Structures
1.
Amino acid sequence: MTELTFDAPTVIRTKRDGGRLSDAAIDWVIAAYTDGRVAAEQMSALLMAIFLRGMDRREVARWTAAMLASGPRLDFTDLGLRTVDKHSTGGVGDKITLPLVAVVTACGAAVPQASGRGLGHTGGTLDKLESIAGFSASLTNQRVREQLRDIGAAIFAAGELAPADAKLYALRDVTGTVESLPLIASSIMSKKLAEGADALVLDVKVGSGAFMNSEAESRDLAHTMVEIGTAHGVPTRALLTDMDSPLGRTVGNSLEVQEALDVLGGGGPPDVVELTVRLATEMLELAGIDDADPAQTLRDGTAMDRFRRLIAAQGGDLAKTLPIGGCSETVTASRSGTMGTIDAMAVGLTAWRLGAGRSRPGARVQHGAGVRIHRRPGEPVAAGEVLFTLYTETPERIGPALAELDGAFTVGDAPPRPKPLIIDRITR
Ligand code: URA
């Protein structure tokens, strides 16, 4: 397909005016954007049109297939491993990938995990891991294969897999076009199908910190992705999980790595442990492994051992102190009572304002920026005690970050109504 058949302004206008994009138009625009024939400002306009007008299921499926076709698709079948992966739709304090990969490999499956960077108010696995001195996520395909064979896991920048997603992801992050069902579904599924795992578990977030506003939209996202995975021959299931409050007690790159290490050491916040074990159970079931106990690998140190080997294989040095922002500020309780809900979106934006995320493509993130949550929902609070600590390298960021956190939590007389962390399981 060439510019004689298609041109970007026409494709943009079609979607802007609420039309549907033909298969051929989708194939053309994705290929042309990937190799530079469609400019970033044109793709930005198209992304905004998709954000505002949406796409039907067939358009999403084709958009995903075109992104998948923009690069190679890895294949590990010759290694004789049981490969399985998970991906989250994006949350606040969501460090689950770190302990999860280690737990699942300790239980006998292999995890080829193509990861992304922070997106909007949510953190990204690669930004978190890069706060470990020396860690590199730029792995050749050959290196990924070797690690899968030797350690059972590799966590790598999707890079040349689904290169269309690498470009679109960075563009969406800075053009206000992240929170779109078709764009999220295609972004996730194109890289996950390209990475070559035999099966896939999706953690679809629901609540204030999720990209989708309502549970109904999150369900729709889950069904769309499960359908795409299944259509491509990859058994796929999804858990709908709560993201009204941040996961765990930390939000921000190095803070989250430390919390993941706490979980791997047999401790850590109960919600992070619960979600890790539940997702591991789903992944192991899909991998056909029914004689393993994921929780036990956290207690007996075998998951920690895997994590250490994985980080070392990718150049990381866990003996070096994790960075923490040199400038800090606390938020204290104005009264005694019980911590109510903590708005995940506001805390995510607070961390982003502190420097944990980006506002320009390719900008450097501050690995030591973020928020420590001292009192979780339902925990008792004494007047004057510290509820949150904010960290950054840039003192001027503290004011805007505090403004973001203002009104994001309540301290009341009664605990908030308990909510389940796992809301539903979607298998088709
Ligand atoms: N994770 C992704 O990889 N892409 C999105 O769009 C959202 C979460």
2.
Amino acid sequence: MFLKGKRALITGSTSGIGLAIARALSAEGADIVLNGFGDADEIAKLCDEMGATHSGANLLKTDEIETMMAENGPVDILVNNAGMQHVAPVEEFPVDKFEMIIALNLVAAFHTTRLAVPGMKEKGWGRIINTASAHSKQASPFKSAYVASKHGIDGFTKTIALELAQSGVTANCISPGYVWTPLVENQIPDTMKARNMTEEEVKNDILLAKQPTKKFVQVEEVGALAAFLCREEAGNITGTNYSIDGGWTAE
Ligand code: NAD
């Protein structure tokens, strides 16, 4: 329970990767602040399970981020994880979608970070972990906003790591490849129908085409890496971008 007495705020933690990170940090004793949308009863259950509190702040709104940070701070661990995707050729990319993706995947992390850093500096300890993506290192066509936002969060993370290097606060990215989340699982039946493929063909030839292990990353694996970065032994790990992608970015 090496995180007893530490407060961790994880954005986008009502499902998927963020939820797994929240569970991993909670299992080590951290006080958890969840954030994200979802069914009120489901969120209440998650709060009960972890003894957590929840902020429903919409991270596209600066004033809601400011309220969330003021009401739930100071935080010792900040995980910027909320994110969204849209796939379209650049000349057809909806302008509002492009701006929204940059706002959620990148600008929101700037706001939470600028508001969390003074408290961390004061305590001489802090952990900032940003969920980036294999797309923070490599591009794919039709994902201009997502790839730009994820390359951006990589650069942002390195910059703040340097600024905070002597303060006891580390800043790192975690970059998953394809992660097994309900979002991915739910795509399989439709893709099987649309392409007349078996479940195995959809997984290997479509979803895992870029992942040499041909295995999905599990959310618990991402949670474990985040927890490791919070350990005292990780105090000299800063400004890095950890791949957890089954070899995708090794190619
Ligand atoms: P998810 O859709 O399961 O979860 C997204 C979370 O963000 C939810 O809790 C949702 O409520 C919250 N959210 C969405 N919009 C919000 C807003 N405006 N304000 C506040 N919260 C908001 O997604 P996931 O697959 O767990 O992805 C989490 C992160 O991991 C994202 O940054 C994503 O880019 C990254 N990622 C995912 C994968 C993957 O294969 N699933 C791979 C690489 C990186």
